[in-house]
């Protein structure tokens, strides 16, 4: 930016590199910190269409490898379709429970892990690895990058939803092939996220899995490394 340019002028298509004003910055961090995975607090109220459109636009503004935009969003409102997905979840969830150690299975079964029928809208998010053509800039060596891009889109949607006062719950305890069959999703596409979306009675203050004693959020320090990856210190140190 030239020295004479005003704060919000654009020069050569560049906007200012200055930080957001404090209130705007705080709003971004507030959406991040208060976003929750919602399962049991959905209200049946129809979703505000303008808010939904803003959320989907936010998702579509996500970064994507080679600008390939590999995502598609299938909006599912039909109750019978959602009931079919709920049955797929029930089967997968029963299989999931027995994979945990015996002393955790009862607790696992007590957790509510989806709101497929109670949320008025479900969004199935898929990823097309061929969307960018046979060779995609940036995906030549790390071949999962279309999936990473689609996850970025989901996170944008999740944060935008929080700012709109709309809850999102991600359901991954599903048989991908069965969901794809129900929703006519072509073979080459991957199912990345199955989201339950709706207005809520409230957001949990902290992750529900923490509140229900399943697992705690770690200190950031445990996940930080300097210069190279280092093994975690044993608990006794
Ligand atoms: C890829 C992914 C898959 C998830 N799948 C499920 C799921 O099947 N059921 C569920 O209840 N929560 C699911 N979650 C939500 C996580 O459990 C949740 O994000 C985590 O416990 C932290 O809570 P918070 O999102 O409220 O901060 C999933 C989250 C991600 C990112």
How are the SSEs ordered, and which strands pair?
Elements: H1 22-34, H2 49-60, E1 71-76, H3 79-97, H4 102-110, E2 121-127, H5 145-164, E3 166-171, H6 176-182, E4 190-199, H7 208-211
Antiparallel strand pairs: 1-2, 2-4, 3-4
Helix pairs in contact: 1-5, 2-5
Bound molecules: flavin mononucleotide.
Compact summary:
The chain is of the alpha+beta class. The protein is built from seven helices and four strands, in the order H-H-E-H-H-E-H-E-H-E-H. Strands 1-2-4-3 form a four-stranded antiparallel sheet, sandwiched between helices.
Question: Could you characterize what this model shows?
Answer:
By secondary structure, this protein is α+β, with helices and mostly antiparallel strands. 35% of the residues lie in helices and 12% in strands. The protein has helices at 22-34, 49-60, 79-97, 102-110, 145-164, 176-182, 208-211, and strands at residues 71-76, 121-127, 166-171, 190-199. The protein has a four-stranded antiparallel sheet with strand order 1-2-4-3, sandwiched between helices. It is globular and about 60 Å long. The N and C termini lie far apart (50 Å). Bound molecules: flavin mononucleotide. Flavin mononucleotide binds at residues 36-37, 39, 113-114, 170-173, 207, 209.
What is the level-2 CATH architecture name?
Answer: 3-Layer(aba) Sandwich
- How many domains would you count in the coordinates? 1
Mean pLDDT: 94
Structural class: alpha+beta
CATH topology: NADH Oxidase
Strand order of the largest sheet: 1-2-4-3
Name of the top-level CATH class: Alpha Beta
Give unreliable regions as ranges: 1-5
| Rg (CA only) | 21 Å
Termini Cα gap:
50 Å
Secondary-structure element series: HHEHHEHEHEH
| Fourth-level CATH superfamily | NADH Oxidase
Shape: globular
How many β-strand runs? 4
- Main beta-sheet strand count, sense and barrel state: 4 strands, antiparallel
Please tally the helical runs, counting DSSP H or I stretches of 4 or more residues.
7
Percent range of helical residues: 25-40%
Strand content: 5-15%
Query: Cofactors and ligands present?
Result: flavin mononucleotide
């Amino acid at each position: 930016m030239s020295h004479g340019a005003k704060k919000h002028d654009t020069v050569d298509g560049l906007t200012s590199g200055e930080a957001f004003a404090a209130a705007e910055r705080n709003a971004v961090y507030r959406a991040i910190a208060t976003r929750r995975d919602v399962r049991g607090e959905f209200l049946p109220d129809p979703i505000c269409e303008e808010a939904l459109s803003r959320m989907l636009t936010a998702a579509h503004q996500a970064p994507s490898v080679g600008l390939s935009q590999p995502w598609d969003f299938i909006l599912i409102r039909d109750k019978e379709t959602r009931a079919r997905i709920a049955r797929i979840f029930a089967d997968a969830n029963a299989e999931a429970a027995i994979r945990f150690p015996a002393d955790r299975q009862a607790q696992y079964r007590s957790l509510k892990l989806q709101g497929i029928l109670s949320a008025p809208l479900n969004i199935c998010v898929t990823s097309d690895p061929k969307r960018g053509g046979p060779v995609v800039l940036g995906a030549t060596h790390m071949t999962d990058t279309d999936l990473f891009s689609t996850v970025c889109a989901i996170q944008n949607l999740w944060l935008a939803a929080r700012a709109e006062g709309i809850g999102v719950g991600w359901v991954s305890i599903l048989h991908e092939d069965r969901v794809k069959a129900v929703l006519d999703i072509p073979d080459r596409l991957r199912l990345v996220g199955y989201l339950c979306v709706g207005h809520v009675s409230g957001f949990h203050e902290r992750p529900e899995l923490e509140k229900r004693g399943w697992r705690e959020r770690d200190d950031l320090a445990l996940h930080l490394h300097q210069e190279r990856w280092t093994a975690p210190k044993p608990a006794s140190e």
